[in-house]
Design a protein that fits this description.
The chain is an alpha/beta fold. It has one domain: NAD(P)-binding Rossmann-like Domain (Rossmann fold). Helix content is 40%, strand content 20%. An 8-stranded parallel β-sheet has the order 3-2-1-4-5-6-10-13, sandwiched between helices. It has a 3-stranded mixed β-sheet with strand order 7-9-11. Helix 1 packs across helix 7 and helix 2 packs across helix 4. It is globular.
Length: 304
Amino acid sequence: MKILVAGGSGFLGSYVVDELVGRGHSVTIFDLRESPFKNPAASLILGDVMDKRAVQNAISGHDVVYNFAGLADLNESIDKPVETVTLNVMGNLNMLEGCRIHGISRFVYASTVYVFSRKGAFYGASKKSSELIIEQYAENYQLPYTIIRYGSVYGERGDSTNRIYRIIREALTQKSITFQGDGTEEREYIHGRDAAVLSVDVLDEKFRDQNVTLSGLERLSYRELLGILNEMMNGEIDIRMRSEEYQGHYVLTPYSFAPTVGVKLVNNPSIEFGQGLLECIEHVYNALQSEGALEPETVTRASG
């Protein structure tokens, strides 16, 4: 199939592009920039989801459209409510309208488990709104869709919008981690490559007009995560718990709101969390060295 991936240069989108290419699909990325992880077999169209004409031109000739574009940082959304809602809701609406006009056979939307929660700030609210609009397009225009509600995704391609990336970068550059919360907060981590496998599996007809939750098999508290990270870095990290609420984030579960019921998928076998975390540390370390942000002789390498 010919598949367009909006936001395909981003953290999660780039993994999905790789998986789609690996399964023999013809893939085009639609994004503001080219990714350092761009798959050479994928085409690239530079464009903005807020540009209606660019969106419609990009969608033309494709069978399936994935939308990973938008503001994905919950913390940033607290300070940028207008930008968040405009980009995430109106940008997605432009994508939907393009799909309607060109008769796309499936629209796959990257949502979040925060749609289940009263937490999530403006990021979560924008995703809830977009889900409702997608369902209206399906009802009124018979546009087939699959909504994927992602849990805590991590991987070596993360950036400053990803919490594990931020924690690793702080540990490497400052040899300390200041954590908002008491460490009891829990997450089910899923590696980006595992999430990508499941994100392509949903193209199966049984997931048409379905809401799917993707999360990992390994549930860890942040205290456990920080302990693993510190051990990998030879116990040299000073961990400071601030024991205060981390605004906008849930503690143990996102389930406090009841949107459309969906199914839950996990990838088994999956990438073991310790292995995946070590890959992240190595990647961030090498990137910091390339930036000149680290003095190699003063930083202890992570141990496997």
